[in-house]
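Report of the visiting student (M.T.), summer placement. My assignment was to run the structure pipeline on a short list of targets and document each run. The first record concerns Acyl-CoA carboxylase subunit beta.
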Amino acid sequence: MTISDAPPLPALDRTAELAGIKATALAGPDERATQRQHDKGKLTARERIERLLDPDSFHEIEALRRHRATGLGLEDKRPYTDGVVTGWGTVEGRTVFVYAHDFRIFGGALGEAHAEKIHKVMDLAESAGAPLVSLNDGAGARIQEGVSALAGYGGIFQRNTRASGVIPQISVIVGPCAGGAAYSPALTDFVFMVRGTSQMFITGPDVVRAVTGEEISHNGLGGADVHAAVSGVAAFAYDDEDSCLQDVRHLLSLLPANNRETAPHEPGEDPADRRTDALTRIVPANPQQAYDIRKVVEEIADDGEYFEIQPAWAANVVCALARLDGHVTGFVANQPAHLAGVLDIHASEKAARFVQFCDAFNIPLVTLVDVPGFLPGVDQEHGGIIRHGAKLLYAYCNATVPRISLVLRKAYGGAYIVMDSRSIGADLALAWPSNEIAVMGAEGAANVIFRREIAAAADPDQMRAQKIKEYQAELMHPYYAAERGLVDDVIDPGETRTTLVAALAMLRTKYAGLPSRKHGNPPV
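After the run finished, the structure tokens were exported:
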């Protein structure tokens, strides 16, 4: 008797059969595989999803998917899920899509069916207009499936690119992510990593040793701290998966679901008109004296809370998300505590990407300016500071979200222009009475303009000091830019929060169209 001739099972038996199959899929491989994962200090795919999403909110799709590949023993190994768990749930009640590699199955390696599951959830996220989080813990392409696996990566990259600027995309590296697999996180908005257990690299230590003779460990080549502080690939690094996933949840709470919405508004108890008199103590009057710009952001933001992006990389510029009167706002600020707050190659790249992200997702921008210029040096010039600095300039010029710049102290030369000056489209340009906006510092300017008088003077030092004072009095007084309409207002530092809240409220309905074009050609 053939299968088609066999009598159908009763409905209850079919239901029991389904329950058994689903239980098998949910359990995954044997307990030894789970224990090996835990012994490495790693959670399983489902444990990670449970910690990321609200309790009991996960809806899995294609849990019963199995590969169809044959050869090299694959036909005898066809586990459910095919090594990746996909679906959607909620974070603080808002829909989020997720996929998580299951390292216990084929080492999390990507095959054709595995890739198709990821493609499906990515398409759903884009269609539904909801964020996508990937939990990466895989051994790369499934070698036994050959080019079919590689093509699966191509489909992921294409979808990453199509969804860029449409929905927030977050990559969490919680294990190995090597070769072509590393390019998907690089295409997403934010990369989170965990120290000791996650690595990203294109070619591993063995290949590096064979090709260059260099000896290096997996973590030394592509560990969390390397990518968070040296390469800039990772935005965040954590000591454990729990704290990492909690911060992913926090970041999601600050972001809109898609590019057609605004970030969630959360009314708080911090008064919009709270004075910020502490700023006069935080920021020294002496423009040469360092201070921590993060304390300025903390004083301005609701309840002193902010979420810094890429804190360990390019520390001479601070990028952060915070709320002002309950509304999420992006802060870009020069950091005088590091390299005097100059702009260099890495700082320009970091700020440019953050500005582009905020603009894509309707997050207004506040720029806090205290910049002595671009970092001079042969390495910077040969490394392309012109091209990289232009990335930040392009990002600001192209941004249509509300933009407010505030000059705290010095703002010299081209760096003043690039840090969202009025001339490149800031909606409002503000300044404190301590501002010094000029082509360069008074000492350097006096040495250039009055070099002959200084050289011919009986006392060159006295003459230099006199000319510096003259230059400061004529071209660097706090109201010079305001008198020429390049600064909209010079404000009391104690009124900074009140002024910014009122200005952002006025700009909330801003509309600024761009010329009709396929896309621009930024200096990438």
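The CA atoms of residues 294 and 318 lie 7 Å apart. The chain has a mean pLDDT of 92. I thank the supervising group for their guidance throughout the placement.
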